[in-house]
Amino acid sequence: MSSGVFEGLIREEDNKEIIEFGKSEDAALLAIIAPHVPYRVSPERVVSVELGDAEEFAVEAFILRAKEIGVKKLYLLIHSPGGGVSSAYIIAKALRKNFEYLRVYVPQVAASGATLIAISGNEIIMGEISRLSPIDVLMWSGDRIKSALALLRSFYKLEEKYERTPPQDIPYPSRHLIESIDPEELERMTGILREVETYAMDLLTKAGYPSDKAKSIAEKLVYGFHSHYEVIDYEKAGKLGLNVKWYEDYREDWVKIKRWLGKYILEESPIHHVVYVLPGR
């Protein structure tokens, strides 16, 4: 089975240490790595990578190759600031569907949409500087980014404060804020947050979490933090209820994963580097 032109979006790893790691574990290895160096598209303009269509097709191409040999265990290295929620969800869901066991390594950052991918793992290996993030949604609105959760929180704070106050008695600054809220946008943001919460619950359930625990973790990841950029380190991830493991319990593997990340992190690219190893090849 061939994925055709989209095979050009992935590459097979040629490093002997990483190849031997996969063979010794009888596991497929997949790295999704955002380059640290922004991609220059013109003398004045650079772009940073985000999870999107290219990554979806790249992961699909990897899965088709993995299916050919019937491997069911996957070790995933994820290093990414995130991107499209739909892309993150469909990537995570496809990996969960095709691999019975998924171990996720987060050497430094798996934020936003990449957190959605990370939580689909049966276990998440984290270290001293590893971090996940909340998964509430940021969206472009006009020429600026808006936080769906911040909009909802603002509305409910105003509602709580002035629900019994006649309109004419509300101070002008607050009345202006209330009148500036677009009901259609508020409903859209509410729906998007519920959608992400549903995605998280689905992936956590597929990763083996009991339904009540999956619901609790998903709810906290969407609604339970101060801002979208709050750091969720190893300790916070554990308190959330995620099945996180400390890197020192996997020290030799961790060193190899960090070296694998180091090979690609400074290599310029307009999309994530998607690199793989299949045992037996």
Summarize the structure.
With 281 residues, this protein is α/β, with parallel strands linked by helices. The chain has helices at residues 16-25, 53-69, 85-98, 113-118, 148-162, 172-180, 183-206, 211-223, 234-240, 251-264, and strands at 11-12, 28-33, 39-42, 45-47, 73-79, 101-106, 123-126, 138-141, 144-147, 244-246, 273-277.
Features:
281 residues; alpha/beta; seven-stranded mixed sheet; two-stranded antiparallel ribbon
Describe the structure.
By secondary structure, the protein is an alpha/beta fold. The chain has a domain at 4-133 and 231-277: Alpha-Beta Complex (2-enoyl-CoA Hydratase, Chain A, domain 1), CATH 3.90.226. The protein is 46% helix and 17% strand. The strands form three sheets. Strands 1-11-2-5-6-7-10 form a seven-stranded mixed beta sheet, sandwiched between helices. The protein has a two-stranded antiparallel sheet with strand order 3-4. Strand 8 (138-141) and strand 9 (144-147) form a beta hairpin. The longest helix has 24 residues, at 183-206. The model has no long low-confidence stretch (mean pLDDT 88).
Structural class: alpha/beta
Identify the CATH architecture of the domain at 4-133 and 231-277.
Alpha-Beta Complex
Q: For the record, what CATH class of the domain at 4-133 and 231-277 applies?
A: Alpha Beta
Shape: elongated
What name does the CATH topology of the domain at 4-133 and 231-277 carry? 2-enoyl-CoA Hydratase, Chain A, domain 1
List the helices and strands and how they pair.
Elements: E1 11-12, H1 16-25, E2 28-33, E3 39-42, E4 45-47, H2 53-69, E5 73-79, H3 85-98, E6 101-106, H4 113-118, E7 123-126, E8 138-141, E9 144-147, H5 148-162, H6 172-180, H7 183-206, H8 211-223, H9 234-240, E10 244-246, H10 251-264, E11 273-277
Helix pairs in contact: 2-3, 3-7, 5-7, 7-8
